[in-house]
Amino acid sequence: MVSKDMLRLGRVRSAIRELFEFGRKRAAIVGDENIYDFSLGNPSVPPPAALTEEMVRLLSECDPSALHGYTSAPGSNETRDAIAENLNRRFHTSFTRRNLYITCGAAAALTSVLRALTVDSSTEFIAIAPYFPEYGCFAATAGGTLVVVPPDVKNFQIDFDALEERINIHTQGVIINSPNNPSGVIYSEATIQRLSDLLRKKSAEIGHDIYLISDEPYRELNYTDQPVPFVTDYYDASIISYSYSKSLSLPGDRIGYVLVGNAMPDFEDVYDAIAGSARVQGYVCAPSLLQKAITRAAELNLMPDLSSYRKNRDALYEGLSAFGYRCMPPDGAFYLFLEAPGGDGDAFAEAAKEEDILIVSGRSFGCPSFVRVAYCVAYDTIIRALPGFGRLYQKFCK
Ligand code: PLP
To answer: 92: left (phi > 0), else alpha (psi -120 to 50), else beta?
Structure first.
């Protein structure tokens, strides 16, 4: 006998994975070059050359038992010190190793945090659409429930009235993601300020802290000259989930961290509960080689090269807008969130398959009348896919 919930999760692939697998099958028939696969958020730029050099050096020079041995459960002191110092230099914060727990990417960071904050089966976490679909099963598996705030489709910031309506005594946390997957929108400073004010007010009303869980795998993928607001500056009960999957193009290497802000009320309890949650889920001692690699990345302050994403974004945004498509100009991450011509994201994404264009319906992000186009692909793929997007537009808008 097995768990019904786990069986369902294991058998039913996410819509994104499903589409990716469809693309693999089609590619075997029509050839890789004739599939325009905009389904997955797999970075298309290689990791920074300096990081690859460091990893080669680590492998060839380090004592193997030091390189491959266990570190302490939350990560080595060296790694956590280097990350804390890097953040302090960049954001004028005052973190130490004690703020950080190194994890296997943002997924492990989030599951560790959600489980740590789930008090009992009445616990609720709020996500703001559009949101990363895995939040739903992460919250449910932690033992709580995900409550979704409908999107503010005018500008994909936050519909504060709708958010306030959903906060109640069971609310433990609000999950935000900026720069956002899938909208590409960055929450403005005014949004973060207003959100913090609202959470303070509602925490006082319901008699316990509402945690702000900021999921930030795209923090450095910012095409504007405005910094992404750093949430611990605005709200005391802030927890950051970070990943190097996108910023350093290391998605398969599974490395990231949880950061608990210094002003967190009951800091020790919150941090230690996250450590306990990570422990029961098997996320102790993130891969040692990768811990050393991100230590060097922090020391060298390695950043992503945004030039090719920016070029892709501009070509896609301008090309699609010229056909008549509508979307917010994406300021960050590497996604463009289109209003589906005809208003049905499922139907539009399905029709796009006939052009061998793979895009994801917005339904699983909580926005069924949109589609997500992941532009972390070769520039040439965008240029060659545009005529197909043009035909699709004509089909749905004639
Ligand atoms: N959160 C968001 C918003 C994401 O887009 C992703 C991955 O695409 C994740 C979390 C998971 O990231 P990781 O690969 O580091 O587990």
So the answer is: left
